[in-house]
Amino acid sequence: MPERIRRILLTAVVALGALVMFFPFAWTVSTSLSSGAGLDATPQLIPDDPTLAAYRELFANTPFARVIANSLGLAITTTTLQLVTSSLAGYAFSRLAFPGRGVVFGLYLATMMIPIQVLIVPLFVQMRSLGLVDTYLGVLLPGVASAFGVFLLRQAMNSVPRELDEAATIDGAGHFRIFARLILPLVGPALASLAVFAFMSSWNGFLWPLIILRSEHLQTLPLALAGLQGQYTTQWDVMMAGSVVSVLPMLALYLFAQKYVIQGVAGTGLK
Amino acid sequence: MTAPSAVGISRTTRPLPPPRRTRRGSRLRYTLTVLAFLLPSALPLLAFTIYPMIGAFWTSLHSWNLIGVMEWVGLENYATLLTDDATRRVFANTLYYVVGYLPLVYIGGLALALALNSLIPARNLLRGIYFLPVVTSWIVVALVWRWLLNPSVGVVNAMLGGLGIDGPGWWTDPYWAMPSIILASAWKDLGFVMIILLAGLQAIPTDVQEAAMIDGAGRFRRLLNITLPLLSPSTFFVVVISLINGFQVFDQVYAMTGGGPAGSSTVVVQQIYDLTFRYSSAGEASALSWLLFLLVLAVTVIQLIGQRRWVTYA
Questions:
Q1: Which of A194, B153, B195, B292 would you label with B202, given CA atoms 20 to 30 Å apart?
Q2: Given this model, what pLDDT does residue A110 score?
Q3: Residue B262 contacts by C-beta under 8 Å, 6 or more apart in sequence?
Q4: Which of A233, A259, A232, A179 is CA-nearest to residue A64?
Q5: B155 lies in a domain?
Q6: What does the DSSP 8-state code read for residue B227?
Q7: What is the model's pLDDT at position A243?
Q8: Which residue ranges does the record assign to the ABC transmembrane type-1 domain (chain A) (predicted)?
Q9: What's A47's DSSP letter?
Q10: Chain B positions in Cβ-Cβ contact with residue A270 (cut-off 8 Å)
Q11: What is the mean predicted confidence (pLDDT) over B166-181?
Q12: CA-wise closest residue to B180 among B260, B268, B272
């Protein structure tokens, strides 16, 4: 087969696949715009008379605005804390010599293997004895540090030439200054990549918030969405409106930082 | 989102910088510096990962309802679980998920990566579309697919109906519940696998392919004898990560079927959750957690050992 025709066919197939992949999103938006969807039995991709009624219903009859603020606050806090703790540790493993460094780093990596499910009982008990059940702090604390983040930033910092900090040392700079002024600005892409991951895992996190949060006004988006199911068993338009609202911020972040997300994912699979 | 991990990543070989000065006061200062950089992450990991990990093991050796006094029972929880039909079922369901899901995302992801690695128009846009579900939360994925696969008014069955096929009850049918979950999960993770394999493909030196082409190797032969072997490190990574995550499947099951109908899609993590918070059997829940952890660890270690047979590092 001539190369050109092969390429056209290939493109067509991949584009068709992309349409199929994208269809659930399109269908979600479409459903959210058709009032009372799920009651009539003929699905339509373009609703007869699009309406925002489902969105009004969502914000009027459920504490959805509050829930979005909760999720946003938690995600921003988690991301900030993870960036700080991970970059500090990344610097320690990349630039500071101390006894047992290899072993300690190995322990960090080992914690990545531990699934949260193994921890739920003791972690819940721990939070209860600290009086942190049903508080934001209780949701937040287990996500303050991330071994993956430490690993990612150490890798990035290792690729910064050591001659740079040697020169800075000669000029009289201490470790904190070298870290803040020299290294951090040079590992921007890795920081961006970690920021997206941290935000995403907090924003999408389900099992831990499900366990720790009880009060309705403290709920995060995934919890509220799961809760909508019980409340709106047949009103798919409201549920799809909730889905659209919860995907939009992540989508915006993704489009903004697509390059770093893909680099971050791809980089983890290499060598 | 699948958590990336560090399997198979080489360590740095650069020499360590020596501590700058060795006078006593400076050494103390240096120690404090190290601690200042390390403790902000070490303390939380110690307190909220390593300590509870040990705590889970301790709890697994007791009978405990989360409120009263812990009663030492030794390995009894493990013995109970290992002889329980419910345990067998949740492990079987989890295995069903993993076995159905892995080939689907790997073959799909590989085909996509190969296609998007060649010079086709708009490949960045296409890549972005395939990757989009990866950043979506499991709960949204589950809700959306519940809607698409709704037995009576869902669009999938409407389409099947248009083709004259009577669509199944999907998540309301015990036979189809797990396939529904697998389908939704594969849709979500396809882009992740694609990106990993794409990165692997781009790391393959072009001269190897060119040499084979000159030797007269056809497209299929090159794929089989060159591309796939050279892609084996990425494949290995995908398989390890998918298995680790697959055995821990929960969010999408919880939101799509709640483990039903009739327990047909109840997975291990759901059982851990139920044992803890519904049946107040924290000891058994912790024992089941550890069984799951040991299983995942064993599978990972077996793969790490087995990789020597089939993973080629260029």
A1: A194
A2: 83
A3: B174
A4: A232
A5: yes
A6: I
A7: 92
A8: 68-257
A9: -
A10: 9, 199-200, 203, 233-234
A11: 92
A12: B260
Q: Is A109 on the interface with B (CB under 8 A)?
A: yes
Would you state the pLDDT for residue A197?
A: 87
Q: Higher-confidence residue: A229 or A63? A: A63
Q: Percentage of chain A surpassing pLDDT 90?
A: 47
Query: Nearest to residue B128, comparing CAs of A201, A39, A255?
Result: A255
CB contact under 8 A, B203 and A113: no
Phi, psi of B73 (to 5 degrees): -130, 5
Domain of residue B229, CATH code? 1.10.3720.10
Mean pLDDT across B304-311: 85
CB pairs under 8 A between A and B: 314
The answer to whether the CB atoms of B4 and A229 lie below 8 A apart is no
Residue type, B243: L
The answer on pLDDT for A124 being more than 90 is yes
Measured between CA atoms, how close is B79 to chain A, in angstroms?
A: 18
Chain-chain contact of A109 with B6 (C-beta, under 8 angstroms): yes
Q: Please tell me if residue A184 touches chain B, with a CB cutoff of 8 Å.
A: no
Return the pLDDT at B9: 40
Nearest CA in chain A to B150: A38
- Provide the pLDDT confidence category of residue B89 given band limits of 50, 70 and 90: very high
Measured distance CA(B201)–CA(B185) in Å, rounded: 24
Check if the beta carbon of residue A88 is closer than 8 Å to that of residue A65: no
- CATH ID of A65-221, from 1.10.3720.10, 1.10.3230.20, 1.25.40.340, 1.20.1050.10: 1.10.3720.10
* pLDDT attached to residue A131: 96
DSSP B226: I
**Taking a C-beta distance cutoff of 8 angstroms, is the pair A27, B155 a contact?**
yes
Whether A183 contacts A91, CB under 8 Å: yes
Supply the pLDDT for residue A233.
73
Does any CB of chain B come closer than 8 Å to the CB of residue A129? Answer: no
| Counted domains in chain B | 1
Q: Do B147 and A240 touch (CB under 8 A)?
A: yes
Is the pLDDT confidence value at B2 over 60? Answer: no
Please report, as a single letter, which amino acid is at residue A192: A
Chosen for mutation from B34, B112, B143, B236 (greatest number of chain A CBs closer than 10 Å) is B143
Nearest CA in chain A to B11: A155
* Mean pLDDT to the nearest integer, A252-266: 80
How many Å apart are CA B196 and CA A155, to the nearest integer? 18
Q: What is the pLDDT of residues A151-201, one digit of tens each?
A: 889 988 988 899 888 899 888 889 999 999 999 999 988 899 899 889 999
Record: contact B118-A13, CB cut-off 8 A:
no
Q: Are B49 and A119 in contact (CB under 8 A)?
A: yes
**Residues A234/A38, Cβ–Cβ less than 8 Å:** yes
Residues B170, B207: Cα–Cα separation, whole Å:
49
Which pair of tokens denotes residue A242? 């909730």
The tokens for B235 are: 């494949």
- Per-residue pLDDT band for A66 (boundaries 50, 70, 90) equals very high
